[in-house]
Amino acid sequence: MHTVYLSLGANLGDRSLNLLKAIALIAGRTGTLSAVSSVYETPAWGFDSENDFLNIAVCVETGLSPLEILSATQVIEKEIGRSEKTQDVYRDRLIDIDLILFDKLILQSKDLTLPHPLFHLRPFVLEPLCEIAPDVVHPVLQKTVKELLAELLTKKPS
Fold it and tell me: For the whole model, what pTM was predicted?
């Protein structure tokens, strides 16, 4: 079995319901949920929006491959009403599911990069992830989630 960490966010529609639907579908299609963080409300990151996000992190124990997890989460996003993902353009969304970590795998393909290339720069990913996996080590940076969050928070202007 593999240990996978996902980050979920929603800032349109019934945000809480969208997260609950996504959690249920992830649990039903990808494996066993072993942890779900609290919900964090955060401003949009990378673009301006009047709509704050609700964000969570989940841990899944799975027998699926990274690309199978990616495919399953993309189908779930579409079922909840998400339009196609765009590269490097951020916007409001009903649901967003990002594959953050898959075991200690380092992977770079045209379809998927692991670990997620920006997660260590995103407080809305690190805060919920730190709640459920503070001692998990970033396989490239060789720092724990807790250390990455502390570094990010000390860089914030006061």
Answer: 0.92
